[in-house]
Automatic annotation (TrEMBL):
The lineage of its organism: Bacteria, Pseudomonadati, Pseudomonadota, Alphaproteobacteria, Rhodobacterales. Residues 37-114 form the Mce/MlaD domain. GO terms for biological process: phospholipid transport. This is Phospholipid/cholesterol/gamma-HCH transport system substrate-binding protein. It comes from the Bacteria.
Length: 156
């Protein structure tokens, strides 16, 4: 009987540890449902570098996440839905853009508050958007303009 009791206690301890790890993993991954947030939408020309779960930041502080990302077949833009923490009220003329953490860092969504007196209601769309800028296309433009100016320098 004592063996049986110790096996049950050991099994319960393992089960409790597993549940604790699952709760911790859910909180760090942002999987847990946060009822203290509201949705906003935005439509980007290019949403390259972001996906569901990408951070939404305001002044460098995480205030939400990207909750949905889909192609709009009518406009061929990427429609994004973001979740923003309650208590952060954005003016209606706010902007949203995809920013990079640096040359080797990932991308995130940045909110730039406007100055309007009215605030965005849950579910409304942020009209002023700026999609991601491809680092490779910028480098190609730079290299192309450098070669072009070198050729013009030889001719002149």
């Amino acid at each position: 009987m004592a063996e049986n009791r110790s096996e049950i206690l050991a099994g319960a301890a393992v089960l409790a540890a597993a549940i604790g790890f699952l709760v911790y993993a859910g909180q760090t991954a942002g999987i847990t449902r946060d009822s203290g947030s509201y949705p906003l939408t935005a439509s980007f020309r290019s949403a390259e570098g972001i996906s569901v779960g990408t951070d939404v930041r305001l002044a460098g502080v995480k205030v939400g996440t990207v909750t949905a990302l889909a192609l709009n077949p009518q406009t061929f833009f990427a429609d994004a839905t973001i979740s923003v923490k309650q208590g952060i009220e954005l003016p209606t003329d706010s902007a949203i853009l995809i920013s990079s953490e640096g040359l080797l860092g990932g991308n995130y969504v940045e909110l730039m508050p406007g100055g309007a007196l009215e605030n965005l209601a849950p579910g409304e769309e942020i009209e002023d958007t700026q999609g991601s800028v491809s680092l490779i296309s910028l480098l190609m433009k730079f290299v192309g303009s450098g070669a072009e100016s070198a050729i013009q320098g030889e001719e002149g």
